[in-house]
Specification:
Layout: H1 3-8, E1 22-25, E2 30-33, E3 36-37, H2 38-41, H3 47-55, H4 65-80, H5 88-91, H6 95-104, H7 112-133, H8 147-154, H9 161-177, H10 185-195, H11 200-211, H12 220-230, H13 233-245, H14 263-277, H15 283-303, H16 313-323, H17 331-353
Antiparallel strand pairs: 1-2, 2-3
Helix pairs in contact: 3-4, 3-17, 4-7, 6-7, 7-8, 7-17, 8-9, 9-14, 9-17, 10-11, 10-17, 11-17, 12-16, 13-15, 14-16
Bound molecules: acetyl coenzyme *A (ACO).
Length: about 375
Amino acid sequence: MTTDALASDGLDGVVAADTVLSEVDGSNGRLIIRGHSLDALAGATTFEALAELLFAGFFAGVPDAAQMVGALGRARCEVFDEVGALDARLAALPPFDAVRALVARLTDGDDLATALRLLAAPAVFTAAVVRTQRGAAPIAPDPARAHSADILAMMGGSADAAHHRGCAAALDAYLVTVSDHGLNASTFTARVVASTRAGLTSSVLAGLCALKGPLHGGAPGPVIEMLNAIGTAENARPWLEAALAHGDRLMGFGHRIYRVRDPRADALKRAVRTLMAGSNSIPGRLALAESVEAAALAVLRAHKPNRSLDTNVEFYTALLLEALGFPPEVFTCVFAMGRTAGWIAHAREQVAGGRLIRPQSRYIGPAPKKAA
Ligand code: ACO
């Protein structure tokens, strides 16, 4: 790759780290997380087991999946003490910004206790922010519950035990699916900060900031807006064509690495189907989404015949998180609940084996004026 290409192409094709954590195979649409294919993990692994898988070897004394339930539960309780800092000014911010501000208050460190608090933090803070913004008191975590079940309980979810179990399983599938994904923008950012030896809290905070943007983790909220604006299957094609003619990007489509369908889209679609089959929610929503997806793929093919633009993770993320009762404005916070596990493992891997990340830039500005 030439320097010119590097400068203009967002580091496209540049390998910036060796990792044992995950591999994104963009040509074949496969994701491997620490030796396991996503297909084998999603829907079959709890978030606690996934955290053990990602953290193993990066900390002394990583709890096994069963012990992780209690360890993460205790970490949620410790982090809940910080919810007192959620004053009226913070609560008036968009939820992601309020959560980011609360995470910034956590002590920096490199140990397992810091890692577990960071893993717990987006879950506890998101639930507290949502409830506070609704005028309700935050619900304290229950350390005995598994992480996903407790997230739903802290949000004030359904009291129906069977429905709650189905939702917790779907949330586990989601958190596992988004937990790690190669050197995406937020993980790269977290590794850059880790490479300075700043500490895990600083690395996670940096990852959060990068995740926020609509070209990365901020897309699923706009996917819901798109589905609502389209409304019916018949309206999909004209609406999408008008959006492209206007110069808009279709949220939930396209990816830097995948040239075929993002395998996470299928994992999440399966989770949505399972959830909807076991509940009274409207399958019409899934039918609408499938029509919009088919129309979007057709118009994108016509719009960019030389570029393979397929469905990415965010499209069915939107549908799944909506079905779980999360409001669209916190979808990116829920993404952070899962991806924090990856950021932490990558930060530890960077510190263990990597040097300071310090690329170069090429100066293209004016030369200093010569003295007359
Ligand atoms: N809708 C319309 N056009 C698109 C889309 C899209 N979703 N995605 C890419 N394109 C077009 C671009 O406009 C560009 O056209 P141009 O060459 O005429 O300017 C061309 O395809 C290439 O786009 P790039 O931005 O160079 O592609 P890149 O690989 O950098 O972008 C990205 C990937 C940012 C995800 C892009 O596909 C996009 O903006 N998608 C919509 C937002 C989205 O879904 N984000 C979530 C991504 S998944 C995740 O991060 C968790």
